[in-house]
Amino acid sequence: MIEFDHVCKTYDRSTDRETKAVRDISLKIEKGEFVFIVGNSGSGKTTLIRLLLKEIDATSGNIRVGDTDITGMKRKMIPRYRRRLGVVFQDFRLLKDKNVYENVAFAQRVVVTPIREIRKRVPEVLSMVGLSSKYKSLPSQLSGGEQQRVAIARALVNRPEILLADEPTGNMDPGNAWQIMKLLEEINRMGTTVVVVTHSKEIVDRMKKRVITMKHGVIVNDKEESGYGNED
Ligand SMILES: Nc1ncnc2c1ncn2[C@@H]1O[C@H](COP(=O)(O)OP(=O)(O)OP(=O)(O)O)[C@@H](O)[C@H]1O
Predict the structure, then answer these.
(1) Alpha-carbon dihedral of residues 85, 90, 94, 96, nearest 10 degrees?
(2) ipTM for this model
(3) Which of 4, 12, 38, 43 to mutate to test the pocket of ligand 1 (most atoms within 8 A of CB)?
(4) What is the pTM for the complete model shown?
């Protein structure tokens, strides 16, 4: 369902050397998989996510998502493609002046969902992430773990095929981080493909999922249901 075929990404720094962030990566992630991407800072993890989001284009190689070849996708097709993806970031990226309900509903308004569908789906996803009672709270009134659960609800409300999470537990204590991981696992169990970038060795070891380890832009390890790759 996600396929990288000899993908390279070189960032062009006009004032400095070019950076080969991703070098000749070939990779397959099946529909319904749960995959961790790990590796040192600068190894190319976020670049992989940004390539998938079509925020940046591959310098060479091909990327397919389902039966869509996103490599040469026309600009005007990108918004529709992105609706198939849900994204969660380390810093939550919630709208500060909107409450929990509005933050989640806003993601639906952007894709022009009928009001009655929004009224049905927003409470459903808030219940799923355990935040039904806090729907009127502002992000500033929530803990980091709760804010991330709002961000996950927002990512899920459009029923994406794939959930991409870039360091979703980066700023959390171990208890909250574990709760978020269990939530992502639950979402995966319900059929969504989940790709998580993380630095947390503890989490990766405990979750027992496939782990792709990157180093200097290449995949140095790809293990099914194993612990963190020790490639350093
Ligand atoms: N927009 C950019 N312009 C130029 N170079 C970039 C850009 N974004 C990333 N890089 C470089 O590409 C390489 C890979 O970066 P990337 O962000 O993918 O790594 P990462 O594994 O996600 O790191 P981290 O764990 O610190 O987030 C690094 O050397 C980085 O400096």
Answers:
(1) -170
(2) 0.96
(3) 43
(4) 0.92
